[in-house]
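Reminder: ligand-aware prediction takes two inputs, not one.
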Amino acid sequence: MPLNPTVPRPPDGGHGSVPTVREVGGIYIHVPFCVRKCLYCDFYSEIDRSRIPDYLDALDQEIRCADPPAGLIFDTLYIGGGTPSVLASNQVNRIMATVRERFELCPDAEITLEANPGTLTEKGLRALRRLGVNRLNIGVQSFSDKGLRFLGRVHSAEDARTSVRWAQDAGYDSIGLDLIYGLPGQSAADWIADMTAAVTLAPHHLSCYMLTYEPGTPLSRLLEKRTFKPLSESRVGTLFQTTIRFLADHGYTQYEVSNFARSSDKQSRHNRKYWSMAPYLGFGPSAHSFMPPERWWNVGSIGRYMELTATGQPVVDAKEVVDREGQIIEGLYLGLRQTDGIRIPDFENRFELRFKEVFGEVLATLRKKKWLQDAADRCALTPLGLRFLDSVTSMFVSRDFSGIPTSERR
Ligand code: SF4
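Here is what comes back for the chain with iron/sulfur cluster:
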């Protein structure tokens, strides 16, 4: 996949003009409301849902005031959170209508809504599908009720199964499930039972995330108090390898460190934009935007966000220009996460350097450890290399790019 995907623009009125290409970006909408905070969660969201109507007014204003970047069309709209499925279908409709008014969405745009079991109804899912939501990502996290209680989820395993069946009946083009592994005491057999429950439902996409203890979350405080014993790093690493093997045996191809799809057209088009450094715009508190080389992000509280929009002020909290060195580091980090890795000719063109000369030593070390796939025009990690992604990335980024001699540049 190219770093910045392009699609042909129709010829200008058929008068023989040369067709040009337009960049294709993504749009992210943050819905910062949840029924209850899960114990492990460090995403920004609040549980006071009485603020939803005022929040939607503020969001509407932010989207309307945004300048559509020249020459950019959008082929993904991702409504995430938080728990967007706490919204009524007419509220989702309003967001989608404002986005369509302000930005050019491709006719075949991937439109994803994140949903949680326990907030869904059969009727609501059918209504969202009729509005044009074509991809549903359901935060199941576990098919074990004990695991769900540990994570502080609001739903049961049976709620999750019912939600998936309703979504299938409603006819979504793509249904994805999120799962978490590495819970205290979890054995390989427990995790395989969880994944078996998931693949039995035949979703198109699975995201399997390792449980992390983020600072400031209730779960990390419980860990500090030694309320439970976390799984050791090596056991979590083994579960990661188990995930890849089990899902491959059940028809799911890994395309990113945590993401698996039944076919390439069921991969998350939107998330691939983040990993390929494609442009995207984000709306709502704490949402990030990236229009290379600039990145900016919004204020992180609903209250402040609503105050600013009410007085017609910008909601951007900070902005940065990602310099060449920063873009190289991001290109490495994000490219290596994907199983098809970094396409070397694209990387060389983008950053004007000779990849194999600059990173020759690192590549040799990775090859020795069997962490590198054997491919001429790609730098891609083996499943074992992906297990040690952080170490691999550090090996690449420890290179001082500012000091790359001219002879190593193209
Ligand atoms: S539902 Fe999602 S966003 Fe909300 S608290 Fe739980 S993990 Fe966080």
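Residues 1-20, 405-410 have pLDDT under 50 and may be disordered. The two ends are 22 Å apart (CA to CA). We will return to this case in the review session.
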